[in-house]
Every structure is written in C-alpha cells, then in structure tokens.
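debug: dumping io for the single-chain case to check the tokenizer round-trip. Nothing else runs in this session.
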Amino acid sequence: MDQDGTRRAGGRARDTTPARRMRELDRAEALRLVATVSLGRIVFTQHALPAVRPVNHLVEGEDIIVRIHDDGALASLVAPADVPGVVVAYEADAIDPDTHLGWSVVVTGYAYRVADADEVDRYAARLRPWVDRPTTHALRIRPDLVTGFRLEAAQARLVPTVRG
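debug: decoded output
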C-alpha cells in the first residue's frame, strides 16, 4: 500500500508521484516562504517533554509572531524577565499531497513575550484566533537557526540517441 492507501490489481501499489530532488534553501528564501503561509507548528517543552501545537502566524522582518491564550499550553513559554527567552522550534510548509512537491522550513530560536501593548494590539488585528478564547498576548520568535528545503520535480535526463 502506498502513502495514500491505494493499491493496484494484484496487490502492487501504484506510484503516482513524479521523480523529485531536494534543494536546500538559504535563510532569506526560507523566511520569505514562511511569510507566504499563515499556518505552522510550534515545538516547545512542556513538563520536560516535547510538545507541538498548530498556530497561525505572521512574519515581521525575520521574527515570527504568534498569539497566545492566557491559560493555554503556549503560556508556559513566557520566560521570566531575567531570562533571555525560551528555546522553541517553528515549522511551516506547503507540500502538495498528490505530487509531494513543495517546501518545508524549520526555524529555531528564542521566544519572547511581546511587552509593548500597542504591538500586541497591532498583532491582534492581524492574527485572528481559531477558537473562541481570549488571546491577550503575543509571542515573538527570533530565529537563530533557519533551515529548509524545497522538493522540486527532477529534470528529465536526456539520453543521447545512438544511430548506427
């Protein structure tokens, strides 16, 4: 059975994906791509274990901004004032489910609570919560490490014709 659960007669899976290659992205292109989508996943530590939450985001400069609920799991990311921030990873992608072509980017850096009330209000106007719960704070992720790749269709190889 293949990834989408289809089988050919006789039990053999059919391969409908094109040949592809993986190309690494530079930092600027990776962050530009993250800015083209509004959904990602934040990876953080909760009770000494890895946790992942889907969130919507926006990109401002190189920073990734997400809103947080006071009583939500992400509220634990708010570091005390004397700490430089909390290490998180943020992943965003756009990969076609049929062709498996697209891109994926992972940003690792420190997350800080946005302290300026005017900034929080500005982000609140641009980032709508998914659920009916008050989101009174915003989190800024400052990227230290940015990695990513693009899955592209492999170029067909030309086979020279031998005439004889």
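debug: round-trip ok. The first strand starts at residue 20 and ends at 24.
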